[in-house]
Design goal:
mainly alpha, 8 strands, 4-stranded mixed beta sheet, two-stranded antiparallel sheet, globular
Length: 489
C-alpha cells in the first residue's frame, strides 16, 4: 500500500491497535505457558505476527500471533524433539512449507468450509472466551488464559475452573470486572453514538487505564482490596537492552536431518495454515466493508512470519480469531492496526514491562467477555434456526464441539454434519420422475431424469425408484442433463 493509503485511517487504526495490544499481551504469555515454551517466545510471536506478517499480508483486519490451537502441538513437539532450539528449526521449516503452499496456490482450501461451520466456529469461540474469562473476572487465575480448549493446562476443565472461581473469588478483581463491563456496555450503547471523542478513545483503552488506577489504589491502601501477583499481567522484565536481546534464541540447524523435525514441521504448517484460512474466511465475513483477503498471499505472509519467528526464538504464528475480532470490535479499518500492535508489543517489551505488569487480568477479562458476547449473540442462534436444519445443525454441532473439545475438533465435527447434509441433499436429488404414461397396449412408461452428477451417493435412491416401478412397465432413463455418471455396479 502507498504511505498515504496506509496512514489515512490512522484515527481509527491507532486506538484499535492499542486495544488489540492490551488483549494480546496476556494471550501471548498464556499461550507460551500452555505450550511449555519460554514466556518471551509468546511476545516474539506477537511482534513478528504484527510487524512482519501484518506488512506482508493482504488482509485488512486480520491479526496474526501465536495461536492457541497450536499449543498442544507445540507442547508435544518440544517434548518429542528434546530441546527448544531443535523445535525452532521445525518452525522455520514449517514457514518454508507454507511459502511453497502459497506459491502453489493452495489457498482455495478455505472455500470448502460452509458458512454455517464458520459462523459456528465464531460463536463457539465467543462462548469459550466468555467461559475462559469468568475465573479471571472473579479473581481466580489458576490457568492463565488456557487456550481455546475446554480442558485446562493444569488439569480439570473450564466448568470446574468456573466452579472453583466462585469458591475462591477476589472482591478486588470482581469490582474491577463489574465496573469495566459496565463502562464497555455504556460505551457501545450510549457514548460512542455521541461525541466524536468517544469514537476516537475506545472503551477498552479506558477500561485498561481504569484497571491500572484501581490496582494502584489497592496497593497504596486507599481502597481496602488487593490483587495477588497472579491476578495481573506478568511479562519478563530484562535489566537492560542487552538482557532484552539475550532473550532471543536461535534454531539448531544441526538437526536438519532429524525425521521428527520434518514431521513436526509438516504438522505445524498444515494446522497453522488451516487455522489461518478459517480465520481469514471468518474475518472477511465480519469486515463491515466486505473486503476479500487473497488467501494465497496470506499463506505466503504466514510462511514468512513463521520463518522469522523460528529464526529468533518465537512461537509458531497463525492468523487468530480472538485478536482479529477484537481488532474489528475496536474499530480498525486497515492493516495498519495489526502492524502497530506488533510495534507496540516490541516497544513495551523493551521499555515498560513493569508498567504492563500493573494491568489487572480482570480488566482484560471484561474486554474479552464483551468480545465473546458480540461473537455469540443470541440473535445469531435464531437467525441460523430460521435458515433451516441444513444450516442450523452444522452450526450447533460446531459450537458444541468447540465447547466440549477444542477448536480444530469442533470444526471437524461441524464439517461432518455439513457433509452429511450435502450427501443427503445429493441422495434426495439424484433424479426426478416425470409423469407415468399409459400406452395403447396397456403398459406404463416411466421417465427418470438423472442428475448432473451421478455417483455412489445417488445409487440407493435410484435403485429404490426403480424397485417402486410396477412390473411389465417401460422405463426411460434420461441422461441428457448428466455431465458425469460414475460406474455404479
Amino acid at each position: 500500500m502507498e504511505a498515504k493509503t496506509l496512514f489515512e485511517e490512522l484515527k481509527s487504526d491507532l486506538p484499535a491497535s492499542i486495544g488489540v495490544f492490551f488483549v494480546a499481551v496476556p494471550l501471548c504469555l498464556g499461550i507460551a505457558l500452555a505450550s511449555g515454551a519460554p514466556l518471551f517466545a509468546g511476545i516474539i510471536g506477537g511482534i513478528v505476527g504484527g510487524i512482519v506478517v501484518g506488512t506482508a499480508s493482504g488482509s485488512s483486519l486480520g491479526v496474526t500471533g501465536c495461536a492457541a490451537g497450536l499449543a498442544v502441538i507445540v507442547l508435544t513437539a518440544i517434548e518429542t524433539l528434546g530441546s527448544w532450539p531443535v523445535f525452532l528449526l521445525a518452525v522455520v521449516l514449517a514457514g518454508i512449507i507454507q511459502l511453497i503452499m502459497g506459491f502453489a496456490k493452495a489457498g482455495f482450501i478455505a472455500y470448502f468450509f460452509p458458512s454455517s461451520v464458520i459462523k459456528g466456529m465464531l460463536t463457539g469461540i465467543g462462548l469459550l472466551i466468555i467461559l475462559k474469562q469468568i475465573p479471571h473476572a472473579l479473581g481466580y487465575a489458576k490457568d492463565t488464559q488456557g487456550g481455546l480448549s475446554h480442558f485446562q493446562t493444569e488439569g480439570g476443565d473450564t466448568l470446574l475452573a468456573i466452579a472453583g472461581a466462585f469458591d475462591a473469588f477476589t472482591p478486588g478483581a470482581i469490582l474491577i470486572a463489574v465496573i469495566s463491563i459496565a463502562i464497555l456496555i455504556l460505551w457501545d450503547i450510549v457514548l460512542i453514538n455521541g461525541h466524536k471523542l468517544f469514537q476516537f478513545i475506545q472503551g477498552p483503552i479506558v477500561v485498561v487505564v481504569l484497571g491500572m488506577v484501581l490496582n494502584t489504589l489497592y496497593q497504596n491502601g486507599l481502597l481496602n482490596f488487593s490483587l495477588a501477583a497472579d491476578q495481573v499481567v506478568r511479562i519478563p522484565v530484562p535489566e537492560n537492552l542487552t538482557g532484552f536481546f539475550g532473550q532471543f534464541t536461535f534454531p539448531d540447524f544441526s538437526a536438519i536431518t532429524n525425521f521428527e523435525v520434518w514431521k513436526t514441521a509438516f504438522v505445524l504448517a498444515i494446522v497453522a495454515s488451516l487455522e489461518t484460512l478459517l480465520c481469514v474466511e471468518a474475518v472477511d465475513k465480519l469486515d463491515p466493508y466486505k473486503r476479500i483477503t487473497p488467501t494465497n498471499r496470506e499463506l505466503k505472509a504466514q510462511g514468512l512470519g513463521n520463518i522469522v519467528s523460528g529464526l529468533i526464538g518465537g512461537l509458531p504464528v497463525a492468523q487468530v480469531i480472538v485478536r482479529s475480532t477484537a481488532n474489528i470490535t475496536f474499530g480498525a479499518k486497515t492493516k495498519l492496526s495489526a502492524i502497530l500492535y506488533g510495534v507496540f508489543l516490541l516497544i513495551s517489551a523493551m521499555t515498560i514491562p513493569e508498567l504492563l505488569n500493573r494491568v489487572p487480568l480482570a480488566s482484560l477479562a471484561a474486554i474479552l467477555i464483551m468480545v465473546g458476547y458480540k461473537l455469540a449473540k443470541p440473535a445469531l442462534f435464531k437467525q441460523m434456526y430460521l435458515l433451516g436444519w441444513e444450516q442450523f445443525a452444522p452450526f450447533v454441532a460446531t459450537v458444541i464441539g468447540i465447547l466440549a473439545t477444542d477448536l480444530l475438533k469442533g470444526i471437524t465435527i461441524g464439517m461432518v454434519f455439513g457433509i452429511f447434509f450435502t450427501l443427503r441433499h445429493s441422495y434426495l436429488n439424484a433424479y426426478y420422475m416425470k409423469d407415468a404414461i399409459t400406452t395403447e397396449d396397456g403398459r406404463e412408461v416411466h421417465h427418470i431424469v438423472l442428475a448432473e452428477e451421478v455417483s455412489f451417493f445417488n445409487k440407493a435412491s435410484i435403485i429404490q425408484a426403480l424397485d417402486a416401478i410396477p412390473s411389465n412397465s417401460k422405463v426411460i432413463i434420461d441422461c441428457s442433463n448428466s455431465k458425469s455418471i460414475r460406474h455404479l455396479s
